[in-house]
UniProtKB/TrEMBL annotation:
It comes from Pannonibacter anstelovis. Keywords: Lyase. Belongs to the DapA family. Pfam families: DHDPS. Signal peptide: none annotated. Its EC number is 4.1.3.3, 4.2.1.41, 4.3.3.7. It comes from the Bacteria. GO terms for molecular function: 4-hydroxy-tetrahydrodipicolinate synthase activity; 5-dehydro-4-deoxyglucarate dehydratase activity; N-acetylneuraminate lyase activity. This is Dihydrodipicolinate synthase family protein. SUPFAM superfamilies: Aldolase.
Length: 307
């Protein structure tokens, strides 16, 4: 079993959870989705993330999704599983189950009740205690969690906990945070920094010292292309590619509608049999679908121009 380490890099796609129109899990679409992510250049997958509708799943459904994706991936890339939970008992139980299935590690976001650096550091100390030797990703997403994690707090956590191997960076604005964490002397080791927010700042994040992306934009090939061209030292090509996809990435970032847009794009691309969200969750209205269709057509035209 491959364990997540500080060397994690590339594109860890946040997997959507496909549903049928009646709200059942669509495992056939799940297979197509996994195949698409890997063909698009994903170096890892993250299952049961916030945009994977994890809170809408039962514990048995969560385990079934992980097991199914793990089987489809068949060891080709590491799998990270979102294990955030209101209590440590649930977190510990899910972690034990998915690690036994072969997961590489888990991702943990802070609960919204945390306010001070000491509270945040204490929480992650307890996370590490409950998870034991399991490596974990610290998800820093204040726009959703409401928890602001300072650079000094992150330094205390990563310097004290060897099982904290990766930061999922989704602060906004947050480019200065990447720079501060990469500054010599801030951390006692180099950790992996993978960025979210639908990839809308990915070129700048890579130049600031990020190792890649951990997010679920409906076109993961864009993120893989940006990361690969950055590695080659061709940021002009990376930015040209990024710019072509930016209108759709921006469209996906709308609060409340972003997941519906992402699933609709995946449906239009033939990856999902249905763009359905599990309730509560509303589909796109006809005008919004037409707007997305128009942007997809323009993207195809621009990609042909870029070869």
């Amino acid at each position: 079993m491959t364990r997540l380490t500080e060397a994690a890099s590339g594109v860890y796609v946040i997997a959507a959870t496909p549903f049928t129109e009646t709200g059942d899990i669509d495992f056939n679409s799940c297979d197509r989705m996994v195949d698409h992510y890997l063909a698009a250049g994903a170096t890892g997958l993250t299952v049961l993330g916030i945009m994977g509708e994890a809170p809408k799943l039962t514990s048995d459904e969560s385990a079934a999704i992980v097991r199914h994706i793990m089987k489809r991936v068949d060891g080709r890339v590491p799998i990270v599983v979102g294990a955030s939970a209101p209590g440590f008992a649930q977190m510990q139980d899910l972690t034990a189950r998915v690690m036994d299935m072969g997961a590489a590690g888990v991702m943990v976001a802070p609960p919204g009740s945390l306010r001070t650096d000491d509270q945040i550091v204490t929480y992650y100390m307890q996370v590490a205690e409950f998870l034991g030797e399991t490596p974990f990703v610290l998800q820093d997403f204040p726009l959703v969690t409401g928890v602001q994690i300072s650079v000094p707090a992150l330094a205390r956590i990563f310097n004290a906990l060897p099982t904290a191997v990766c930061l999922k960076h989704e602060d906004w604005p947050g480019l200065a945070k990447i720079t501060a964490l990469r500054k010599e002397g801030t951390l006692n080791r180099r950790i992996s920094i993978l960025c979210g927010n639908g990839g809308v700042f990915l070129p700048e994040e890579m130049e600031r010292g990020a190792d890649g992306a951990m997010t679920g934009f409906a076109y993961p090939e864009m993120m893989a292309g940006v990361v690969e061209n950055h590695r080659k030292g061709d940021m002009e090509r990376a930015r040209d590619l990024f710019d072509a996809y930016l209108p759709l990435a921006r469209m996906e970032q709308q609060p409340g509608a972003g997941l519906a847009i992402r699933k609709y794009i995946m449906y239009r691309r033939g990856i999902l049999a249905s763009p359905a969200l599990r309730k509560p969750g509303a589909p796109l209205d006809p005008l919004s679908r037409a707007e997305v269709d128009r942007l997809m057509a323009r993207l195809e035209k621009r990609l042909k121009e870029l070869n």
